[in-house]
Amino acid sequence: MTITADASFEVLPFTRTCHHIWEDGDHVLIGVSPGNSYFSSERISSLTRWATTRFAQVDFVYADLHVDRMFAAFGYTQEHAEKRATKEIKAVRRRILKGVEESGPQHAEIRVRALSEFQTNPVYQLLHRRVLHFLETDDEFRKGCEEMALHFVGSKLPEGESITDAQLQVCFDYMAAELPFFIDTPSILDVPSSVAAYHVKMPMTDVLFARGGGLRATRNQAYAVVRPEAAEKAQGNPNRASTNPHAHTHTHTAPTEGTVDERRAA
Questions:
Q1: What pLDDT digit, counting tens, does each position of 110-154 carry?
Q2: How far apart are CA 210 and CA 65, in angstroms?
Q3: To the nearest whole number, what is the mean pLDDT of the chain?
Q4: Do the Cβ atoms of 71 and 21 come closer than 8 Å?
Q5: Which one of the listed residues 33, 187, 193, 242 is annotated catalytic?
Q6: Region of 66 on the Ramachandran plot (φ > 0 left; ψ -120 to 50 alpha; else beta)
Q7: pLDDT for residue 257 is more than 60
Q8: Rg over CA atoms, the chain
Q9: Is 40 in the active site?
């Protein structure tokens, strides 16, 4: 179920329902992690041009919650962690704004906001509480979050060492702040439907979009892998690794056309 939107990006909706939501073209959410070199200003420009030709509304949301705690949990002093987090968050906002500005004439409504701006949103608050509840009560959901945490920080752990409980908790808090947007962006942002776009398949995708029970994405919430087309894939390096411990550096590849069909949700 591969879609090629234009010459620059390949799109792989995760399920048939995701494909239908993609075709609706109401809204796309592009989450951006501070410290992830994949999201250069040039990449943001390309993503903006791509998104505005296909969707009525576009939201860039960048993570700015628990970033200092992530640095501190993996070896930085508290003072250094706070300074580094502030620097990275400011830098990622600048890159997004520059990329959007340099993308050319806009054909859709574009917003750039920090994750922290939604902490007073009642729907976001409710979804965040649900995520925390399922972390405590749903073994499958928690296992998925643990796998996701290891993808975040596994390469930052000294050889032979396992992630500590304190480090795992910080990862959970960081992810729990983001996950509401993969569950029900339409309700948070008051849009008819939404596609969450990321350049690789996240470990939590199966849990939220493919299983039959527990915490699931709403029916008007989609997920799609949106990755650079053949030029970068030919180089064998579609995902540039981040040097920061909190950045998204998943090793999962995007689902292929066959596996999307096999995993389609009811």
A1: 999 999 999 999 999 999 999 999 999 999 999 999 998 887 777
A2: 28
A3: 84
A4: no
A5: 33
A6: left
A7: no
A8: 18
A9: no
